[in-house]
Amino acid sequence: MARSDRLIQLTQVLRRHRHPVTAAVLAAETAVSERTIYRDIASLQASGVPVRGEAGIGYVLESGFDLPPLMFTAEEIEALMLGARFVRERGDPALKRAIDDAVAKIEAVLPENLRLALNEASFFAPLFGKIAPDSVSSDDLRRALRENRKVRIRYRDLAERETERVVWPVLIGYFQYARGLVGFCELRNDFRHFRTDRMISLDVLDAHPPRRRAVLMREWERSAEREALLCQREPPRLPRPGDPALRPAAE
C-alpha cells in the first residue's frame, strides 16, 4: 500500500474510534508494525491532522476534523450500495427518496472508476414478498426518535385487543416483512416491541423520556441479553393443547 493511502486509512481508523486507541490496536487494524504507526502518527501531526496522545497511552482524533470528501475504496462503495438496496426494498417511501438522493449526490462527485463500482456493485438485498404497510406516519415516528420525545400510540395486538400506551422510542427495526418499534412502555413498565402496521394511531408528545435514548438502548440490550439467558436455561419441550405458548402474544 502506498504511504499516502496508508495515512488516509490510519486517519479513518482513528476517526472510527471515539476513545484513545493504542498503537498496537492501530497496527493490527492497518496491518503494519507499531513502529510504522509511530512514524505515521508523527507524519499526520506534522501535516496538521489534530491527533492527540502519545506512545504507551493511545491516540485520538479531535472532533471537527474530516478527510477529503468521498475517499472511498471499491469495497466501501459495494457496502454502501448493499445498504442502499436494503433501504430501497424495506424502507418507507420517505426513506427510499432519501437513499436515492444520497446515492445521486455520491455518484455526482465520484471519479469515473468508483462511479462504475457504484453502478455495478455486485451485492443485492432481495425481498421475497411484501412488507406490511404502516398504518401511522413513519416520518413522525422517526422525528420522535431524533428529537427524543415520547409517543402515544393506540395499538392492536395479535389477539386484536386494543390498548393505548405512552412509549419512549428506542429504535426502529426493518425486518423481512414488517417494521417494528422498540420502546419502553409506560403501561407495562418494561421494554416492548410494536409492529408499525398494528399501530392504529400515533401522536408525538412534547414530553421527553427521563433518560437519553443511548441510555435506554443500553438498558434494552441488557434486558434482551437476560431474556436470552433465561431461554437457554429452560429445557426445550413440545407445547401441549391449551398451553399458553400456543396462544397469541399480547404484543
What attributes does this structure have?
251 residues; alpha+beta; Arc Repressor Mutant, subunit A; SH3 type barrels; 3 domains; five-stranded antiparallel β-sheet; two-stranded antiparallel sheet; 8 helices; 18% strand; globular
What would your notes on this structure say?
14% of the residues are buried. This protein is globular. The strands form 2 sheets. Strands 6-5-4-3-7 form a 5-stranded antiparallel beta sheet. The protein folds into 3 domains: 3-61, Orthogonal Bundle (Arc Repressor Mutant, subunit A); 74-119, no CATH class; 138-233, SH3 type barrels, CATH 2.30.30. With 251 residues, the chain is α+β, with helices and mostly antiparallel strands. The model is unreliable at 244-250 (pLDDT under 50). It is built from 8 helices and 7 strands; from the N terminus they run αααββααααβββββα. It has helices at 3-16, 23-30, 34-46, 74-90, 93-109, 112-119, 138-147, 213-233, and strands at 51-54, 58-61, 151-156, 162-174, 179-185, 190-195, 199-204.
